[in-house]
Amino acid sequence: MEQAIVNWEAISALSEAFGVIAIVISLVFVGFQIRQNSNSVRMSAEMDVSKQFAGWASLVVNNPNVGRIWDAAADDPGSLSDEDISQFLWFVMELLLLYEAQFHMYLKGHISEESWDAKANMFLGLIQNPIVGKWWATGLGPFSSHFREYIEDNRGRKDLKWEYASVSAAGRLDT
Fold first, then answer.
1. pLDDT of residue 141 exceeding 60
2. Is residue 132 part of a domain?
3. Is residue 24 one of the residues assigned to a domain?
4. pTM of whole model > 0.85?
């Protein structure tokens, strides 16, 4: 009877080859999962941003006085009383705090550049309002130095696609 000769070196080489193939397949799968998770995080962040703005806009819907002040600040800032200016600036600060949070989300890659550019154009346009610009120049407000620097570096841009305007004037059909 013949005895089978076992080539342990060949078996070991085959085992190593299968192990390498299994590792490569696992790494490809993990890479796919990470990319899918990153996309989910970005989509969730974009949705959260939309919800934040919807919440902010609901302040106007639920309080017509805020809408009146917002429009007056755009159309005729000099017509606002000191009390109206104070309320307007609190409203603006809330909006800028939302923008700052989104700025940091953008820097970490959680918000797309396209989405961020649209938001940046809005608040950089808002900073051009005389009331907001004067308030911003005081340095008041709990904003990070990175966010302040971004605004200062970009606030004078001529390529802004959004100009601060009253919502009612923008929505009029007779103009």
1. yes
2. yes
3. no
4. no
